[in-house]
């Protein structure tokens, strides 16, 4: 086993760092699909202590990577209505664990991605 091998796998209802009890020295990967209601430009935001990166399909939309204190980054992407692969990776090297992932776009007010729009 190496330091990057998964220790465990599971399912989460939302993209949220509270799924682990650890407060430092860990990483998380959330994978699934997101549903968007209309064609248009969508904004994705990560706000994190520690590194966070968000992909839609193969496109890196938000790059908030690196060891840092609380920092917010935003990325935008044109999407068609329907389902799209989403992946969020997060690590907390030291200090406070904190991860927020928001979405806004046509018909969607800025806020955490609703669990109803996330699919495993």
Report the CATH topology name: Jelly Rolls
The tally of domains stands at 1
Q: Judging by the overall fold, what is the CATH architecture?
A: Sandwich
Shape: globular
Strand runs, count: 9
Q: What string, H for helix and E for strand, traces the elements in order? A: EEEEEEEEE
Query: Structural class of the helices, strands and pairings?
Result: mainly beta
Mean pLDDT: 90
- As residue ranges, the low-confidence spans are none
Molecular structure report:
The protein is mainly beta. The chain has a single domain (27-119), classed as Jelly Rolls, CATH 2.60.120. It contains no helices and nine strands. Strands 4-3-6-1-9 form a five-stranded antiparallel β-sheet, with no helix packed on it. The protein has a four-stranded antiparallel β-sheet with strand order 5-2-7-8, with no helix packed on it. A hairpin with a 2-residue loop joins strand 7 and strand 8 (108-112).
In short:
The protein has 120 residues and is an all-beta fold.
Write the layout of secondary structure elements.
Elements: E1 26-36, E2 40-49, E3 52-56, E4 59-64, E5 71-79, E6 82-92, E7 98-105, E8 108-112, E9 118-119
Antiparallel strand pairs: 1-6, 1-9, 2-5, 2-7, 3-4, 3-6, 7-8
Essential attributes:
0% helix, globular, 9 strands, 120 residues, mainly beta
């Amino acid at each position: 086993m190496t330091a990057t091998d998964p220790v465990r796998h599971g399912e989460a209802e939302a993209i949220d760092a509270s799924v682990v009890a650890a407060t430092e020295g860990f990483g998380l990967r959330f994978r699934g699909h997101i549903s968007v209601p209309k064609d248009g430009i969508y904004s994705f935001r990560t706000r994190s202590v520690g590194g966070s990166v968000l992909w839609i399909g193969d496109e890196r939309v938000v790059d908030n990577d690196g060891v840092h204190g609380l920092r917010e980054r935003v990325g935008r992407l044109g999407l068609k209505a329907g389902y799209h692969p989403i992946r969020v990776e997060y690590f907390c090297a030291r200090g406070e664990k904190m991860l927020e992932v928001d979405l806004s776009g046509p018909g969607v007010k800025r806020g955490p991605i609703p669990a109803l729009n996330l699919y495993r």
